[in-house]
Structures
1.
Amino acid sequence: MSNSSPATNTVLTSTGIAALALFFGVSSPAAEARPARVLLDNFYNHETKDGKRYHYTWDDKASSGFSKLGALFTAETSTTFDHLTVAPTEENLRAAAVYIIVDPDTENEAANHAPHFVDAAAAEAVVRWVKAGGTLVLMNNAKEEADREHLNLLAERFGITFNHDLRNQTPARNRQLATVDTQAATHPIFREVPSVYLKEICTLRVRPPATAILSAPKETGEGADVIMATSQLGKGRVFAVGDPWLYNEYINTQVEGRNVANQRAAANLVRWLLSQPTAAQPRTR
């Protein structure tokens, strides 16, 4: 368990994730590198199965987990992984380099049907942490699958709104309908990535300081939908997408007839998240 803060639970140390990195065929960096602390929310997304937390967690090695994404973090640098099991504050975020919020619960999904919602105090704490140099990842979900209203209290502080919509459905298991071409995208996460796979997602609306980094033609009518966006605030930055996207089930997705490269995009994203030159650090007292 992590001793850095009583508000966090360490579920996989860098040693444990290094073993996962070897299992998935990626190399781990020199041991002497200073660990980057990556926090994954387990307060707004808190689901249980057989009495244990699961679904978008570091320690979930099934298709529903993020263990493969964790292996990519460790392939890039020495990393410690925690779950944040309470609302974010400036204090419990201070030592983190990256903070990830995925698929915040609705009443139907939450443990005991008692969801926790982002409020103004939590949003302000996260905004202050980003301004100080933190890197925030927001991964929502389609329509009724996640709490959008309260997460937007936070996202809109960075010029990003998650829309109440649904696209990239795959009727008759036609995966090509959930494949998005990225060849015109110039952001570093799409380097050597011809296309990505995102199934049943919501779109985004952006305004300054946010910027769309991936768009796709609307499924009906004219124009384009924003699929992914980034934002810069103070010394920190934000990445947003309307889907959990890179969990174990889809990180290695292949689509017949399409050159999908989700894993390469995931590795590029991890590299970009960890490249922040000024990370939030504990204050000296």
2.
Amino acid sequence: MSGTASGPPAGLPARLEVAGGIATITLSNPRGMNGIDKPLTQTLLGLLDEAEARPGVRVLLTLAEGPAWCAGGNVAAMASLADGTHDWIRDVGADVNALIPRIHESRLLSVAGVSGAVAGGGLGLMGAHDVVLATAAASFSFAYGGLGLSPDAGGSFFVVRDLGYRRALDLYLSNARLEAEAARNMGLISRIVADDAALRAAVAGLAAGPAEAIAETKRLMRTAAGGLLRAQLEDEIRTLADGTRGAEFREGLAAFLERRRPAFPGAPA
């Protein structure tokens, strides 16, 4: 079956290709580590509309170019915005909070194909997918505490759902970085695949499954989880934005930019 490509104009951060019942969205801002910002969220929302409207599409596959699948929020932008960081996060967060349920609740079976670094808000974007297939090159960083901030993009929903409260909290408290095997053993990802060809073969197998039965299975499991995602997303982004007004974030951001260990206010010397 011949494939078709949707041409976001050159320079936009993602593109869509459709072939064999699979709509592939590729994050294409490797210089920006495929970070979450307004151009990315707006582009992804548009591409999701297009993918779901295409006849015959059964699976949504999200890939990425470069060394990072998604590195989360743009810390450099936060540093440059200073007192404007709160409003910037709320603005981008409004799109994020629309995007995450769109992926999670899509009638399509969604697959994150990860071969690179996932950090911060990227964990929520990844977690919104139904299946996560990763190569051994993938890594997963819970990089909020070092900045003096709390999770967003559904991270506190999906990671707790998949790993349980104590394990999820420990990963965030320790600013942990997991390699692919540890992430699979914990349940953060579905499977490790050998390479891109193996990943695409696995996705083709999923596309050959019973699409209507899979959609209903997804719906039943979402219902069993309590349907709390949207409320959690709003709580996350409000808390994250408010956190940027505090002394802990100011110290965490300075330490990040200066490549040193943070000395948070009130912490024992």
3.
Amino acid sequence: MKKLFTLVCLLTLSSTFAQVVKDGKVVTDSKRYLKDQTFNGRTEGWFISGNNSLLFSQSAFDNWVAGGVNSIALNANVDYEFNLTRGKHIWDNHVVIGYGVQANEGESTRKTNDIIDLTSAYGYNIGNNWFLAAALNFKTQFTGGYTYSEDAKTKISNFMAPGYLSLGLGVDYKPNENFQVNIHPLTPRFTFVTDKDLQYKGNFGLKNDGDSHVFELGAYLGARYKVKVMEGITYDSRLGIFADYLKKPQNMDLAYQGLLDLKVNRFVSAQVSLNLLYDEDQISRMQLKQTLGIGLNYKFDNKVKEEVTAFQSIQEQPVFVMNDSPTASILTETN
């Protein structure tokens, strides 16, 4: 588990710091926290963006509970954001829906992707883009997931089996739509298992045979980082960590998602995705899903703006305001 946690942290943070070429010279910015940096903040009013993709893809799986095999597949995804900023109030809504199927010669059609992930979060600005926050998340899948053998298939998941509903209370750091950190020390979470075939002790954390849900109370730490690597190439990474206060808090649930988008033109792109999941209530091994696809892709948003890298936004935004002090003067003179 420690090795997995270290790997995901490195994947998430590897592109956080960068150098900038200015006037033909490589410059490293060391003024990140100084108050003389300027920053425009989030977009006032509604910020609406969407990404629709239909990909012809190659997929590889290892211990993925939702089901699937290595395949050539057709994969459809939608990823929408509806974010509202009104003064000190923000309301962020995120919709992720995906479904994919594969067809191997001599076999029945099998799925390669299946996700429903809905998030709605409210925040109240308490200064420097820190928000008192409440976030509601619902996650499940559309259809049954199976493992396959030569003679039979075994059901291992289904719609609302599992289904997750969580409410996180805490603080968020959201300087813009491309970067955020979520710290929710009070996060109740329900795990639902509505398929009677899967309601047995130990499955998805069920305590007894016939149980249909599990209640957990814990803490959640999340982060999202979206960066423009270069013209036409973006990388969007998300990390979530949950620890249950009531049962082995040291055995944390960990989920990582990374999406590399390589734009060919307005309607064609290639995408590489990586999903890592560790949850002992599902399986006591790391789950991995990787996909590579080329196909149709259409993005939109309601703002005409210059796209900047996430690290530039972080550099321009002070995390804490520093008052005039000898230390601040020294830092200013040094840089």
